[in-house]
Every structure is written in structure tokens, then in C-alpha cells.
Amino acid sequence: MRIGLGLEMGGTIEAVVTRAKDLAATGVSSLWSSQIFGWDTLTALAVVGREVPDITLGTAVIPVHPRHPTVMAAQALTVQAATGGRLALGIGLSHQMVVEGMWGFSFDRPARYMEEYLSILMPMLAGEQVSFQGEVLAANTLGPPETEGATAPPVLVAALGPVMLGIAARMASGTITWMVGLNTLADHIVPTITSAAYKAGRPAPQVVVTLPVCVTNDPEAARERAGRIFSVYGQLPSYRAMLDREGAAGPPDVAIVGTEEEVAAVIARLADAGATEFSAVAYGTPEEVRRTFALLGTLA
Q1: Residue 49 and residue 57: Cα distance in Å, rounded?
Q2: Is beta strand 138-140 parallel, antiparallel or unpaired with respect to 131-133?
Q3: pTM
Q4: Distance of CA 212 to the CA centre of its chain
Q5: Rounded CA gap, 105 and 110, in Å?
Q6: Which of 181, 216, 208 is nearest to 292 (CA)?
Q7: What is the 3-state secondary structure (H, E, C) of the chain?
Q8: Which of 25, 46, 66, 214 could form a disulfide with 222 if both were Cys (CB 3.0 to 4.6 A apart)?
Q9: Domains in the chain, CATH or no CATH each
Q10: Taking the alpha carbons of 290, 5, 12, 80 in that order, is the dihedral positive or negative?
Q11: Separation CA 153–CA 261 (nearest Å)
Q12: How far apart are CA 268 and CA 214, in angstroms?
């Protein structure tokens, strides 16, 4: 199982690049950044990739509604060209409150939206001309993308329910999860997506797991801090469903917290459960974060 770290996009672009260099120096295999409400993550990763060599740069994740799949394909292929083919493109549906309340798009039939999105995105990433008319999306390109030298990145779909996991298995390279606990990973995520890929005649899917991590000697305080930092994820319906399946009251119950030995043991169990890559979102005091970075670099 590959080991990665979350790359925060806060501060100036220069600060993001410096942070990426420091994280890459730990020895991890990948850095993962989300798209929230600040810098454009794909653009920033293109800059980072020119400064930080020999490490995978992933998005975890880019919401699909604000970017037509032809635009997403152009951006992703640009990052591929700029970084020498080191992008892992994680995409997701976001949440109804964001899609409708912030962007003004309809969140009706989200699984259909993702399926049609991938029907356009995947051939474009492969350098093909696209003519597609779906129920919610359409695209008619004049020819193949003019992106000489860029190769298609792996596409990971944020998927939690069986329908979305099936779409990820049939149409993409795999899935990327957030706030999914060990038992849910082993009993639901991995078997569901693996079975769907097998039935579709597809390769074994990638399963990238992201969770909060804090290496500490004070687990009670660390879990209390996790409850404050990650509280919103216990309220969003898709994550709430996974926490309920896990039997978790909230994000603190799926955060990986403890000494170096305890954290390493849980991460090893994630690999046993079928995760192909683990990305840690480190949090805590400066000393706890330092210890977390050091451990993840050692495990990598």
C-alpha cells in the first residue's frame, strides 16, 4: 500500500510550493489536495509539479458540477503535461447544499450526472473526439484534444454507496474515500467496488483511503480536537451514512489517533482491508504533526 499526505492549499502559492517540498522530503509517495473555496487546485498542482519532482500529485477531490467535463479534461491534461504525468485525478459530486446553495446547479439524479460526466471525460482524457448527448450533459467536440505529449491520468471517483461504487468500477480507475472507517472499508467499500469491476471485466480498482491522523501521547485531547476540526463531516448526509454504518458517533471515532506503534497498526489494517493507498490528513499540535509526518515517511 502506498502512503501519502494531504497538502493544504492555504496561504500564498509560494507557501503551498514550500509546504509541498517539505512534505515530499518525508519520503511519502503522494500528496493530495482538495478543492474547496480557495486556490484552483489543479492549477496549483501544475505549479507544484514543476518545483517538486518524483511524487504523485492527487486531487481529493475536484467537484464536477462547476467544470464541464471538456474543461476538466483540458485542465487535467495540462497538469499531466506540466508534471510529466504525475497527476491522479480525484473527482466527486460534492454535496447538495454546496451544488445548489452555492453554485446554483441542480443536484437532481447525482449518480446519472456522474455517469454521463465520465462518458465525456474518459474518452477526452484518452485523446478522443467526443459526441455525446445524455439526459443531463452533452458534448460535441470539433476533434481530439490538442494536448500533445499529455497522457491520461488515472481517474478516481469519490464513491460511497453501491450505485456510485459501481460507476467508479466500470468507468474509472477506482475510488477515493473520506471519513470511511476500517470496518466499512473492509465490509462494504472494497468488496462492492471489487465485485463490480470483476463483473465488468475491469482491472482491480484502486482504493485510496483518506482519514485524519494524529500521532500523540494524549489521544483523548486529539479526538476532542478532531471533533472540532472535522465536525461538519458528521453532518453531511453521505459521510453521515458511512459513519452510521461504522457505528461511529462522529469524525473523532474514525480518526487514526495514538502513538507511533498504534497508528502504524491501524494503517496496516487498512492495507489488509484492501486499501491500495492511504493518504493522511495530519492534524494536532505542531509537535504531533511533526511526529505524524515522520511516521508516515517511515511507513512509506
Answers
A1: 7
A2: antiparallel
A3: 0.96
A4: 13
A5: 11
A6: 216
A7: CEEEEECCCCCCHHHHHHHHHHHHCCCCCEEEECCCCCCCHHHHHHHHHHHCCCCEEEECCEECCCCCHHHHHHHHHHHHHHHCCCEEEEEECCCHHHHCCCCCCCCCCHHHHHHHHHHHHHHHHCCCCCEEECCCCEEECCCCCCCCCCCCCCEEECCCCHHHHHHHHHHCCEEEEECCCHHHHHHHHHHHHHHHHHHCCCCCCEEEEEEEEEECCCHHHHHHHHHHHCHHHHCCHHHHHHHHHHCCCCHHHCCEEECHHHHHHHHHHHHHHCCCEEEEEECCCHHHHHHHHHHHHHHC
A8: 214
A9: 2-157 (3.20.20.30)
A10: positive
A11: 35
A12: 16
* Residue linked to cell 467544470: 67
What's the one-letter identity of residue 153? P
Nearest CA-CA partner of 56 in 19, 31, 28, 76: 31
Question: What distance in Å separates the CA atoms of residue 133 and residue 219, rounded to the nearest whole number?
Answer: 52
CA 55 to chain centre: 16
Answer yes or no: is pLDDT of 288 > 90. Answer: yes
Q: Give 228-271 pLDDT, tens digit per residue.
A: 999 999 999 999 999 999 999 999 999 999 999 999 999 999 99
Mean of per-residue pLDDT scores for the chain: 97
Rg of the chain over Cα atoms, rounded to whole angstroms, equals: 19
* Residue 49 amino acid letter: G
Identity at 56, one-letter amino acid code: T
Quote the pLDDT of residue 143: 84
C-alpha distances out from residue 201 to 121, 158, 171, Å: 20, 21, 11
Cα distance between residue 126 and residue 131, in whole Å: 14
